[in-house]
Amino acid sequence: MQLPPLAAVAAFYFLMGLFSASLCVGVSLRPSFFRAKGATLYGVLMMIQYTWVLIVIAS
Fold first, then answer.
1. Residue 13 in contact with residue 44, Cβ under 8 Å?
2. pTM summary value
3. Where are the beta strands (DSSP E) in 1-59?
4. Least C-beta-crowded within 10 Å: which of 1, 8, 18, 57?
5. Which long-range contacts (CB under 8 A, 24 or more apart) does 48-56 make?
């Protein structure tokens, strides 16, 4: 089995990091846009916290 080129893997992780960071900034600037109907503020804050934990683990 041949591994993908290192540059392709690095570019993929870089783009996924940019996407995750932009999503987090979008949620922090307009949380009402991403909130499900009927969701409480506590639930939204926990979702943001778990998103950051996943980003840290993935990087």
1. no
2. 0.51
3. none
4. 1
5. 48/24, 51/20, 51/23, 51/24, 51/27, 52/24, 55/17, 55/20, 55/21, 55/24
